[in-house]
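Example 143.
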Amino acid sequence: MSSSVKHIKLRGHHLICLHFFRGEGYNPEFVDNLRTALKRVEAGEEAKVVEGPDDVCRMCPYLKESLCAYGEGAEKEIREMDIAALKLLGMRSGDKVDWRDIREKIPDIFGEWSGKYCAVCDWMQVCKTDIAFRDLTNETTEN
Ligand code: SF4
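Predicted structure in complex with iron/sulfur cluster:
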């Protein structure tokens, strides 16, 4: 019997940030891979929560020897973000999660998340073009 269901693997902060994907990314391969992963989970396929590099990082030009080399200290910062994201979402590594369930949780946790992470993120200007992101930040911040 071979029940090898292959789940999309997602790390903590991607469970939050990818809801605001706008079709932009580091290069075309990265974007295509991300778009495919999102299509699958949006269509109802379960994602598996992982620690460290996930199926998005897999095609990232900044992934070097399984570490995030986006910038100085990135690996540590990203790991801390992952832990914070999972804590807010009430999830842990190994969980199988439904993308739509996560989406429903985002409004409740977004104030805390965005206050700490979005403001210092290089992708903030892209996320701001997303209507849901703008609605959430209007709800959670003055201005
Ligand atoms: S920048 Fe780092 S955390 Fe982001 S996708 Fe690339 S390797 Fe993963």
